[in-house]
Amino acid sequence: MPGGDQISGREPRFAPAQQDSTPAQQDSTLPPEANRSVIANSVLSRDWHEAVADSPGPWLFILEGLTMYLHESEVRSLVTDLADRFPGSHVLIETVGPRSDPPGVLQQLRDQRTTGTEFVWSVRRHEQLCRWHPRLELLNTWYVMDYHAEAWPFLVRTLRHLPSVRAQSKIGHFRIAA
């Protein structure tokens, strides 16, 4: 984010974390940057919190391609831990919609067949996460299907206007109040 963030004008620090990964895997994901640290730890562990807190903020936490594979209690614990420990931070959370919605069922079946993975947690609306912690504030929700419509197959371009289809893949931007 060259030029600093919109709030403090300072460069945010990035510390990529995955459910389970090694520093080598994380280094291959993002090129080295002065404002990025690699911490070899599970995102569900609290062991990395101290290392991040010791670095100057502001912090931007990006939970991408992760929450749908966790149980709600794990997502809630992660988000509330961030809200307790890192006031003033921003969090981007990629989520999927409920599997009970028809497009969710189809996605779930395709993912299980091709990757052997299973979506465990979903959320219909990002506002629901704000109930988890009093300092968590939803700033925006971006629906993936609203972008690059020309790249989607005809059927998806047509069905993406249905709320249950549109909500299947979304990114919530949260601020943790100081």
Quick description:
Helices cover about 30% and strands about 15% of the residues. It is an alpha+beta fold.
Walk me through the structure.
The two termini are 22 Å apart. The chain is globular, with a radius of gyration of 17 Å. Mean pLDDT is 79; it is low at 1-10 and 21-26. The relative contact order is 0.15. It contains seven helices and four strands. The chain is of the alpha+beta class. It has a four-stranded mixed sheet with strand order 1-2-4-3. It has a domain at 58-176: Rossmann fold.
Give structural attributes.
Rossmann fold, four-stranded mixed beta sheet, disordered N terminus
Mean pLDDT: 79
Order of helices and strands: HHEHEHHEHHE
Shape: globular
Number of strands: 4
Provide the low-confidence segments as ranges. 1-10, 21-26
Strand order of the largest sheet: 1-2-4-3
Strand content: 15-25%
**Main sheet attributes: strand count, strand direction, barrel closure:** 4 strands, mixed
The CATH class of the domain at 58-176, by name, is Alpha Beta
Distance between the termini: 22 Å
- Radius of gyration from the alpha-carbon trace, in angstroms: 17 Å
Supply the number of helical segments. 7
Q: What is the percent of helical residues?
A: 25-40%
What is the fold named in CATH at topology level of the domain at 58-176?
Rossmann fold
Second CATH tier, the architecture of the domain at 58-176: 3-Layer(aba) Sandwich
Structural class comes to alpha+beta
CATH superfamily of the domain at 58-176: Vaccinia Virus protein VP39
